[in-house]
């Protein structure tokens, strides 16, 4: 079960895996690392919007959707989740432990980098 830390829900590897496998779960998972990190290893299909750029996409994101943020260790994604909550996004989660804890399938390269203007179809799983 997800843990709440400083008001932010943190999901673990098992929970994130379940979200990814559940075709009925329409949560949007976003990797917030830098392109170099993402290219080295990322969760297949998960789009990249670097932390430093994600604020410019906020107006294009659906506040009624559920979001899970991923980074290397869980710290940057935690900060993004907190910021999103402060901006009125209610259903946000941090992937605790980040890619350092991910033991599932990985992909390499820049397969799903989101560029402005937002292509919302790239966010769908």
How are the SSEs ordered, and which strands pair?
Elements: E1 3-5, E2 8-11, H1 13-21, E3 28-31, H2 35-40, H3 51-54, E4 67-70, H4 75-86, E5 92-95, H5 98-101
Parallel strand pairs: 2-5, 3-4, 4-5
Antiparallel strand pairs: 1-2
Basic shape: globular
Query: How many whole angstroms does the radius of gyration measure?
Result: 13 Å
Give me the strand/helix succession. Answer: EEHEHHEHEH
**Amino- and carboxy-terminal Cα gap:** 23 Å
Structural class: alpha/beta
Strand order of the largest sheet: 1-2-5-4-3
Mean pLDDT: 93
Strand tally? 5
Total helical segments: 5
The proportion of residues in beta strands is 15-25%
Low-pLDDT regions:
none
Write structural notes for this entry.
- The protein contains five helices and five strands; from the N terminus they run ββαβααβαβα.
- It is α/β, with parallel strands linked by helices and about 120 residues long.
- A five-stranded mixed β-sheet has the order 1-2-5-4-3.
- The two termini are about 25 Å apart.
- α4 links the parallel β4 and β5.
């Amino acid at each position: 079960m997800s843990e709440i830390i400083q008001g932010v829900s943190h999901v673990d590897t098992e929970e994130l895996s379940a979200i990814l496998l559940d075709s009925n779960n329409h949560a949007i998972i976003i990797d917030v690392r830098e392109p170099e990190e993402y290219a080295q290893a990322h969760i297949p299909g998960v789009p990249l919007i670097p932390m430093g750029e994600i604020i410019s996409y906020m107006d294009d994101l659906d506040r009624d959707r559920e979001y899970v943020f991923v980074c290397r260790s869980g710290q940057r994604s935690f900060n993004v989740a907190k910021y999103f909550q402060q901006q009125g996004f209610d259903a946000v989660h941090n992937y605790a432990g980040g890619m350092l804890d991910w033991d599932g399938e990985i992909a390499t390269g820049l397969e799903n980098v989101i560029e402005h203007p937002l292509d919302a179809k790239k966010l769908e799983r």
